[in-house]
## 1
Amino acid sequence: MRGGERAPEAAGDTLAYAELKAFEGRAAAVAGRGKDPVNASMIRHWCEAMGDAHPAYTGPDQVAPPTMLQAWTMGGLSGHEGRSDAYDALLALLDGAGYTSVVATDCEQEYVRALRPGDSITFDAVIESVSERKTTKLGTGHFVTTRMDVRADGELAGTHRFRILKYAPAKKHGVAGERGSAGRREAVGRRPRPVINRDNAGFWEGVAAHRLLIQRCGDCGVRRFPWLPGCNACGSAEWDTVEASGEGTVYSYVVMHHPPFPAFDPPYAVGLVELAEGVRIVSNVVGVPYDKVRIGMPVRLEFLRVDEELELPVFRALADAASEGGS
């Protein structure tokens, strides 16, 4: 999503890129302060929501999960006083040029030290980059990346990079309601590309070979998914992989109705599938109407080619379960 060709003349064609480029390096937030110190209650809520029972997150030597880094900086509905005029001016400039929609695209975090209950959180943020105009399936716009340095009691604890796309929505073509027609299929277009990085490249190489690979810790043997650079049970950076058998059951699911997106055709079911190997994966449940998916339904892995470049792992309801669901 970060790439893309130059957009045709459209919204924002009067906005010189130099105007946006001038914001790079300017502050996005100055002397921001977390509204609460690091505390056990928030850690507990986070771990319960994530299903993370690592013993490091409880007990007398408790630390916060590293992925909570941004959580301590969030300002809630009332926001933060430290947000800069420069960042507001950049967003206003993009709004004025017609890029009035926004979507978060990705984030990156680097961890320097653990956060512990009682730590007082402060932060500063900078507008790190503003891209040239890009065309995506959502529309034409500019990617804005901010970098936040998070400190605990004045000591650098980590860095959080956050990227958004400010865009003018693409015009939709075709007639609504033409599900299954050639015109509808043309309007749907290509699926978004997965973000592949050094931490998950092996997973996608496995998918290309029709293998669903699960990481296994080289020290404690715990299996994990999605792929991570270190074990969330013992912290070891050593690991190998095991290939999933493909058998699983629907642990939970949602049915997506809204918002509509050019690459998808709602409603459809998205399942949290528990594999026989004990890990869970989010993917589509196919082979059964979306309103017949049920918790506990047995499913089997298959690979779906969605276009000439991309295949994805999906899970097909087994025949017996599908017939029961349709009865």
Note: The longest helix spans residues 85-96.
## 2
Amino acid sequence: MTEVLFYVFSAVLLIAGLMVITAKNPVHAALYLVLSFFTGAMLWMLMQAEFLAVSLVVVYVGAVMVLFLFVVMMLDINFEELRKGFWKFVPLASVVAAIMAVEMVLILTHPAAGLKAVTIAERAPDYNNVRDLGVQIYTTYFLPFQLAAFLLLVGMIAAIALTLRKRKNTKFQNPGQQVKVKRNDRLRIVKVDSEPKPTFEAPKPAAEGQGEGQA
């Protein structure tokens, strides 16, 4: 059953990744990317790496994708203009993707990589994958981990810088001027003279002759 689920989630992940790059609507592409993240988290769960699965959902789906959608909607990019040469570069992109896939398979299957499958029976009773992951990150892979964190920080700063560009007819507030404001700048007391109270005269009774003629 585990192998069946692995192939099902892998197929969904490949289809979702393909739809990310072929969807015309950027919001739809982002939703397909969310689906790929979820299926990737399920694959981590099958490998009993619960911490990585939860981190993938919380960090990427809950934070990165929200930031991505925010940037896409704020930049107002003409995606139809960008996709004009999409099919022109598909053959070259396919060759590059195939080469990268072959390289990853060769690296993961090479004996020098030191990667081997570990069953549940071979693990110690007090084994904790979170502790093992922390030891590997902050000892063996400390510099690559810091480099990845720096790249994410640069990407976040770039996204903020792009969204803060000035636009025509954009209303904004200056916090510095709001702090320096005084009472007299916002409030003005105007003294208005009171108007005289209007007087109403009682209607005069009509004359007796005029009343009979009207009747």
Note: Residues 50-75 form the longest helix (26 residues).
## 3
Amino acid sequence: MHGPLSAAWLLVALCAATGAYCLLRMRSTVEEQRRTAGGEALMGFGMALMAVPAAVLTPPTWAWLLYAAVFGTAALRALWAARRGAHHLHHLVGTFAMAYMAVEMAARPAAHAHPGGAGTPALTGALLAYFGGYVLWSGARLVPAAATTGAAPALTGWGDRPELARACRLSMGIGTLAMLLTM
């Protein structure tokens, strides 16, 4: 992606840290949590790779097509899983957005180094609106229930804490929003 180097490296670090935490969440005793964490780890590490500044590494076209294939496959898997719950719809939108950005970068490799052009395509605008709303919504959900009700939180393993999972989803939403803004 293009943009300021320091912001790009911060995005790489944020996405890689999120992916690493999601790998740790895969050790959960809850099967659905493990499955969800695996998809989120893929997203975190994939976003970290895609966010490496173009001044440091400009991937060849085949690499962008590989990203598109991986995220397209993940989108199909999320589409299949969406029949079980609404959260999988967010995974579907997220993986689709990553596949879309990879296809765009493969189609316009010169745009990777030189932003700008004829304006924002409608699909990019729709994804920006979705992820902007998602970031605001998920950020508001980080307020712990114990802070609003006065109840003490139940102690669980740090890999099974729902607020940490929400924080990871929030950081990936922020990362996707930042990457879409550079398109």
Note: Residues 111-118 have pLDDT under 50 and may be disordered.
## 4
Amino acid sequence: MNEIVLVTGGTGFVARWCIASLLERGYRVRTTVRDLGKAETVRRSIATVSDATGHLSFVKADLMSDDGWAAAMNGCTYALHVASPLGVAAGSSRDAYVRPARDGTLRVLSAAVDAGVRRVVMTSAAAATRPPLASGLLSDETRWADPDDPQFDNYRVSKILAERAAWTFMKGKATEFSTVLPGAVFGPVLSSENLGSVKIIGDLVAGRPRFLPRLGFWVVDVRDLADLHVTAMTAPQAAGERFIAAGDFQWMEDIAATLRSGLGPNGSKVPTRRLPTALVRLLAPLSADLKPLAPLLGRKFALTSEKARRMLGFAPRPVSATVLDCAQSLIKMRA
């Protein structure tokens, strides 16, 4: 197969698995990195799950700069825009998150359109479909979250506004466009950097926090997420569509119980006791980690991935397998 796929942000957790999924299907893959000095480290990590890294190449490009994007897109049939801006300090203003996410996305899409790329698939977030928490409404692909809703932190606001800007920009363009909106992404890691939500699993294995807040997540395995990106890239029916990628909902105490029962001695530090929600709400304003999660305490909001299952054959694996594979890969990496 001579078709080239560009994957943005090759050092990222999701991007590495997207690259591996593409290589295993016979595509030639080009990926962007901000520092070419990291290219061989990325190649070696992907080689642990794919024998086809000879078909992987690298180009330098940064979401915050126009440089490199025309060359990155040149000759590509498809593009997966997975990258998110890095380096935004905790506590930064809303604009500090929104501008790089939105402007970087528009930079990628503009280059793709100019290069005549057939289809771009963008990674958004399931939060971009979330209604007000007390509404009782279902999160599905027909819904757009309100970026001014106080439930959202600056990072999630940036994802909402970046996807909105992308759909507006791509309207009427010859290049086809689709978005994939994942829940909390867990699963085996190929690198110790850019782990995102995987840090939740790593902390639990290490015994943090000592007491579990009543927080829950719609979980998706990174391998299933990568495969869904590739399916959305080529399936004719996926053009012009949004797809939520999520498996089952899990409370943190459910995840902790899976880890303790499935990891043997390696799960001995996993906490078991729940912290009262009233106390967490009291402490949340004092914690940089808890503050953005405070609106979600004790809430299981309704969400569906039925569209991805029906249209693209999305079949997420059991959450227990995802959580244990994630933890075991972290333990192995730290050994």
Note: The mean pLDDT is 94.
